[in-house]
Specification:
Elements (H helix, E strand, L loop, with lengths): L1 E3 L3 H12 L5 E3 L11 E4 L2 E4 L5 E2 L6 H9 L7 E2 L3 E6 L5 E5 L2 H11 L4 H16 L9 H26 L3 H5 L5 H10 L7 H11 L3 E4 L3 H14 L3 E3 L4 E7 L2 E7 L4 E3 L3 E3 L3 H8 L7 H9 L5 E9 L13 E11 L2 E10 L12 E9 L1 H7 L3 H22 L3 H4 E7 L1 H8 L33 E3 L10 H18 L12
Parallel strand pairs: 1-2, 1-14, 2-10, 7-16, 14-20
Antiparallel strand pairs: 3-4, 5-9, 6-9, 7-8, 11-12, 12-13, 15-18, 15-19, 16-17, 17-18
The structure holds flavin-adenine dinucleotide.
Length: about 500
């Protein structure tokens, strides 16, 4: 079995493949594991490009079983920040999105009594999501049966409200607030087209302390997955980019690498980017309307301008948050062709391991236009110069909120949508695949196919066949796929090592 890509989904497919007795080889174009779940080191600082929260960090969560099966959570220490994020207003007020629902409710009500109806509805929505305790196939049959019955009754109670929430987008929900700061804060909080129901689930998980931040960040998790895979006897090749998926008589028969080497296989799984898999590696030959639809119609998570800074100071006065703070700029400015009125900044004071003693890693993550960077990069010098300019611009803007920071900055690093594309192959540098919108919310109950029409023995897993993306989803995707393959082969699916 050949697996393309050693991101979370590819490594998960490898791990569950090995657990079920398949000979697996992963071909990864980069020289390290994890795909998007990554970080990089610069002069003693670690800049993390991924994990803010890991759903399933609570040992009681069914997701946690998956983390244990794959070895990701082994030995991880989790931090549970009291605040998801804060949005500072130009009028001196600050909206704090507390992880605790009761605290969040009273804070929002105190800030804007005129928005009581919308606030109460939002909190009720979070409580509704908290009430769902979906059965997971990691649990014993008796638990699954009990949970299925309970979920049925929860749906009876909340089904209508749940369906309604899936149709509400971030933009639409933010527009319901009368208070301009709350409107702005909710706009900052969630992606405009993304269904708000996921925001509700996120808060439900934060409240129940089931979405912690793992100390050490992304890379140790990716390395743990690689280790588990290798311990199970899996083979992993780095610096091997796959150019083609070979086919014959309607079956996948192997792969061809960019260096021309061909490797035969009885099954091929792509856990790499969906667009390049279907349109390049398979030449666009195995598409029907349904397979093509997402690529024609569905919006993707944006591509990012990701500025990392190593700051020679501590930020003890800034509370720990899951995803940072945003502050208003004195006046709107153009950053890489986009007008910005405020700046989001994530101070990594929740994880001292990210910086040398007494210093702090800081990141600024902005949506950025892929085409803008693609055009700039036609001239490498201009591209590099623009990245330098952006680093200086961001530092100048941070001075407005953190006076003196320019002097304290000792490391800068700028990643653009092209960086994300180069290192992970993701389409237009998207950082999480498909957004879930009212148009494709049905995939929450009816998952996308992991096969393509007209091609046997070929499969896909990962964020491009799991709208909403994310680390747990990618692992589940690899697991779901191997389960399906076991079913095809008439085998009982195993999720644990026989020795365990
Ligand atoms: C800034 C940021 C913040 C995030 N925050 C969170 C968070 O807090 N919580 C969370 O759960 N998720 C988060 N995510 C999302 C999460 O990282 C992704 O959804 C998940 O890692 C996707 O995993 P994947 O295996 O499906 O895809 P990828 O990680 O993209 O893996 C695909 C792999 O395939 C390889 N590949 C591609 N093409 C080829 C080829 N031709 N040949 C060989 N190899 C190839 C790539 O190099 C890569 O290793 C975040 C992502 C980013 C970027």
């Amino acid at each position: 079995m050949i697996i393309i890509g050693a991101g979370f989904a590819g490594l998960a497919a490898g791990i569950y493949g090995r657990l079920n007795g398949y000979n697996t080889q992963i071909f990864e174009m980069h020289n390290q594991p994890g795909g998007l779940c990554t970080s990089w080191k610069r002069k003693g600082y670690t800049f993390d490009a991924c994990v803010h929260w890991l759903v399933g960090s609570s040992p009681e969560s069914p997701y946690n079983a998956i983390w244990r099966e794959t070895g990701v959570a082994s030995g991880s220490e989790f931090v549970y920040a009291d605040e998801y994020c804060r949005c500072e207003g130009a009028d001196g007020r600050t909206v704090i999105f507390y992880a605790d629902i009761d605290r969040l409710e009273s804070h929002l009500l105190a800030l804007s009594p005129q928005d009581e109806d919308t606030i109460r509805k939002f909190i009720k929505g979070i409580r509704m999501c908290a009430a769902f305790d979906f059965p997971s196939d990691t649990e014993p049959l008796t638990v699954r049966l009990r949970k299925s019955v309970a979920t049925f009754f929860t749906f009876m109670k909340y089904g209508k409200a749940f369906r309604e929430w899936t149709k509400v987008t971030g933009e639409e929900f933010a527009g319901r607030f009368r208070d301009p700061l709350l409107r702005e804060a909710f706009r900052e909080l969630w992606i405009p087209e993304f269904s708000v129901v996921f925001l509700l689930f996120t808060f439900a998980w934060l409240h129940s302390r089931n979405a912690g931040y793992p100390i050490g960040g992304s890379m140790p998790m990716s390395q743990a997955l690689e280790m588990r895979y290798r311990e199970l006897g899996g083979i992993l090749h780095y610096n091997k980019k796959v150019a083609r998926i070979l086919t014959s008589d309607g079956r996948a028969t192997g792969i061809r690498l960019v260096d021309g080497t061909e490797i035969a296989a009885s099954r091929v799984i792509s856990a790499a980017d969906g667009y390049s898999t279907l349109f390049n590696m398979l030449d666009g030959k195995y598409l029907d309307t349904k397979t093509r639809e997402p690529y024609d119609k569905w919006p993707t998570f944006a591509s990012l301008l990701f500025v990392s800074l190593g700051i020679n100071r501590r930020f003890d006065e800034i509370p720990l948050t899951v995803s940072g703070i945003t502050f208003p700029l004195r006046e709107p400015v153009m950053i890489a062709g986009k007008m910005c009125g405020r700046l989001p900044v994530h101070i990594y004071n929740q994880d001292p391991s990210m910086a040398p003693e007494g210093k702090t890693a800081v990141t600024v993550m902005l949506e950025s236009d892929y085409e803008y960077w693609k055009k700039l990069a036609e001239d490498r010098n201009i591209y590099v110069q623009k990245k330098d300019e952006i680093a200086s611009q961001i530092i100048r803007l941070l001075e407005q909120r953190f006076p003196g920071i320019a002097e304290q900055t000792e490391v800068t690093d700028v990643a653009t949508p092209l960086t994300f594309e180069r290192y992970t192959g993701n389409w237009k540098g998207s950082f999480e695949g498909w957004l879930i919108t009212p148009d494709n919310a049905y995939t929450m109950t009816k998952p996308m196919a992991q096969t393509v029409p007209g091609l046997k023995r070929f499969y896909m897993c990962g964020q491009w066949v799991e709208p909403g993306g994310g680390l747990p989803t990618s692992i589940m995707s690899g697991r779901r796929l191997i389960k399906q393959i076991c079913r095809e082969d008439g085998k009982r699916f195993l999720s644990k090592d026989k020795k365990q």
